Amino acid sequence: MCKLPLKVVLHSRKSFLCFVAGFLALILTLIQIKAGLGVTFFRGCIVISCSAKSPKDEKPETKSFDTKMIQERFLERKLIMDDGCANHVLQKKGQPTFDRGDYLTINGTALYCPIEKTASITWRGIFDEIQRKGVQVNTVGYFMVYPLDLVSLFSNLDADIRFIFVREPYGRHVSAYVDKLFSPNIEFWRNFGKHIIRKFRPNATVRSKACGHDVTFAEYIKYVIDAERSGDHRDGHFLPQHSHCHICRFPYNYIGHLETMEEDTKFLLKAIRSPVDYNQDYGMFTMEDQARWYFGDRKRYGHCMELEEALRRYWKKLQIRGLVHKTFDFPFTAEQLRSITAADLIREGRKAVLKSREQGGAKGNKREALVEAFQSVSADDKDQLRQLYWRDFELFGYNPSPEDIFGNSTADSLNNDRKFSYFSVWD
User: Fold this and answer.
1) How far apart are CA 256 and CA 167, in angstroms?
2) What are the DSSP calls for 266-294, one per residue?
3) Residue-wise pLDDT tens for the chain (427 aa)?
4) Which of 115, 125, 232, 406 has the most C-beta neighbours closer than 10 Å?
5) What are the respective helix, strand and coil percentages of the chain, to the nearest 5?
6) Which residues, other chains included, contact 78 with Cβ-Cβ below 8 Å and sequence gap of 6+?
7) Cβ of 359: how many Cβ atoms within 10 Å?
């Protein structure tokens, strides 16, 4: 016989009906519990959950966290977003949206809309793991459509948990630049790199214009500003986050932040009764996949960039992401590079990540890299970027004018090693 506390949720607008339904549900549930069964029903009125497993079968929590504090933080974020949406009319009915959203649902109990460069790959990986555990995961997707009445569109989904993840906009731009333009990425070099260089570099070399492989961060920011103003060459990885997922039209009730990724994700997984736990090694898995790509796609980018430079950029990327400490130099000599394999790169990368964790981690790298990147951007471009992305700051509660980007501080205040640069490949 299972013994779990009953959880009762009453909604004011249907209080009487809920009470009646809840009372009947309680009688039926007591009968089922006596028989050793588990039950969850009557959405919006009463939810009674009971595990058929014995206590010895339950998995202990690997790390305790303040559930009440996290719940209050989610509520505060929702209030901030609701207030911001009330001040602006975003994505009105009949207005086209860029949204490439694939709404993912778990057994109808949770709905997630991914936004590029805000842990979307990590969450897709989590959903894949959940599906491998035998839980039904559905995808409801559309591309460049005119917004429908989304509440009606998803009214058949019993999604009590409706969530998105966002991140600090300036950090998102650094991440997008590093992932799509600084690192070898043939599609983005071809579709965006060449466009950026031809438009914003007056004396570009023939090779740069043909390959699009060496876009600077300052050039990238000029492109972002131009794309937002002109509507030309836009891409979801670079767009404001409020342009995705019908932020102000769909009733999201949980707004995750990348800056509190682990706590937010563990809370949400627990709320949806996920059969899998959050694993911080998702970053490691992504790192290994990218290492394999560098070798598998070598023929496609080899005419634009030598393997050594590509692998050095990969190593810098690990440091910028806060996976590898900046004191860990590129681990291969010119002689070793002649016979290097993907397995060699993965082995050294994993070793550096684990050693960095042992030494207290390298999360401080992210902010240092961000400050260094924005030091190359003119004051006028930074101001234009801030204005164009103002709604992201307002809707998601981020500071639009951080001192280390807009003040008089320099990267030296965060990065005391003058010899080290996150974006100088040959350091």
Assistant:
1) 8
2) HHHHHHTT-SS---TTHHHHHHHHHHHHH
3) 333 333 333 333 334 444 444 444 444 434 433 433 333 332 222 222 223 333 333 333 445 568 999 999 999 999 999 999 988 765 444 344 444 555 666 666 788 888 999 998 888 888 888 888 888 887 765 433 333 444 555 554 556 888 999 999 999 999 999 999 999 999 999 999 999 999 999 999 999 999 999 999 999 999 999 999 999 999 989 999 998 888 888 889 999 999 999 999 999 999 988 888 887 677 777 888 889 988 888 888 989 999 999 999 999 999 999 999 999 999 999 999 999 999 999 999 999 999 999 988 888 999 999 999 999 999 999 999 999 999 999 999 999 999 999 986 554 445 555 579 999 998 7
4) 115
5) 50, 5, 40
6) 252, 253, 254, 255
7) 11
AA identity, residue 101: G
AA identity, residue 397: G
| Beta bridge mates, 166 | 257
